[in-house]
TrEMBL record:
EC number: 4.1.2.4
Gene Ontology molecular function terms on file: deoxyribose-phosphate aldolase activity
NCBIfam families xrefs: deoC (TIGR00126)
Protein name from the UniProt record: Deoxyribose-phosphate aldolase
Primary enzyme class: lyase
Keyword Lyase in annotation: yes
CDD domains: DeoC
């Protein structure tokens, strides 16, 4: 079945209607969510299935550099690794996208031209989201004009937590319109949302407003992409698909550093949203250090030995 993110323009909603919808969602059984995530995290994936899972996880990585000290040279180096993660083994798949700040988009676009790898850019006053809407839209427009194919925006958590759902909804809709053909990933910053009920509400709000992906975190706040939180978000996209017919992706980011972490997330995807989500079109992993561990584990399965710790470039 072909995957489509296509969304019509967000429906104009009154504050009262939006509040009624969000608070009419079923509450999350927090104990049950933690227990379910824990149970799925113990599933054993071995041999051939593990090799397939590692390659799938590599293809889902958004290789990321979001530091104040980022330079064009660092971004070009990251892009080279994204396209050819292991120069000694060209059978390794390339990653899903490279994620950079807006002022580095043109550098990444030039470096990745012809590879088929997307360029994602954080925008909208990342990571705080504390800026006037016109600034957020200008930030987004700059990244898109420079060639970004994906925009990772952050919601105004202060507005959400104070109950101003309509402001958050309308800002997502405005950013989505500014994105044009670029996909929009909406960062909920789940570590600041306090409850699983809020994670569910924010997920549905973002999808209703036009998000193509919902993303856990900026990677700057802890806790970030915990398994119970990802479970709640996967349930939300599954339910949204059943209700509207539209697929929305999920991107956990922050704290996913090992192959075990990545495979646990893939098991969660398969068992919660379903195998249709086991594609880079619908599931991404925001990471900077994860890729090296995936490559090390892949080499271990192929050769029987681990490469040295300095075998792969440090990102």
């Amino acid at each position: 079945m072909p995957v489509s993110h296509t969304a019509s323009a967000p429906e104009a909603m009154t504050d009262r209607a939006l509040r009624a919808f969000l608070h009419g969602l079923p509450g999350v059984d927090e104990v049950g969510a933690r227990a379910r995530a824990q149970d799925l995290s113990t599933r054993s994936v071995k041999t051939t299935a593990k090799a397939q899972a590692i390659d799938l996880a590599i293809s889902m990585v958004d290789l990321t550099t979001l530091e104040g000290a980022d330079t064009p040279g660092k971004v070009r180096s990251l892009c080279a690794k994204a396209a050819l993660p292991d120069p000694a083994d060209r059978s390794v798949p390339h990653v899903g996208a490279v994620c950079v700040y807006p002022d580095m988009v043109s550098v990444a676009v030039a470096a990745l031209r012809g590879t088929g790898i997307g360029v994602a850019s954080v925008a909208t006053a990342f990571p705080s989201g504390r800026a006037p809407l016109e600034v957020k839209l200008a930030d987004t427009a700059r990244a898109v004009a420079d060639g970004a194919t994906e925009i990772d925006m952050v919601i105004d958590r202060g507005a959400f937590l104070s109950g101003d759902y309509l402001k958050v909804y309308e800002e997502i809709g405005a950013v989505k319109e500014t994105c044009g053909d670029a996909h929009l990933k909406v960062i909920l910053e789940t570590g600041e949302l306090v409850t699983y009920d809020n994670v569910r509400r924010a997920s549905h709000l973002a999808m209703r407003a036009g998000a193509d992906f919902i993303k856990t975190s900026t990677g700057k706040i802890s806790p970030a992409a915990t398994l119970p939180v990802v479970l709640v978000m996967l349930e939300a996209v599954r339910d949204h698909r059943a209700e509207t017919g539209r697929y929305v992706g999920v991107k956990p980011a922050g704290g996913i550093r090992t192959t075990k972490d990545a495979i646990r997330n893939l098991v969660l995807v398969n068992e919660t949203a379903g195998p249709a989500w086991l594609t880079p079109d619908l599931f991404r992993i925001g990471a900077s250090s994860l890729l090296n561990d995936l490559l090390m584990q892949r080499t271990r399965l192929t050769t029987g030995t681990y490469p040295g710790p300095d075998y792969y470039t440090l990102d």
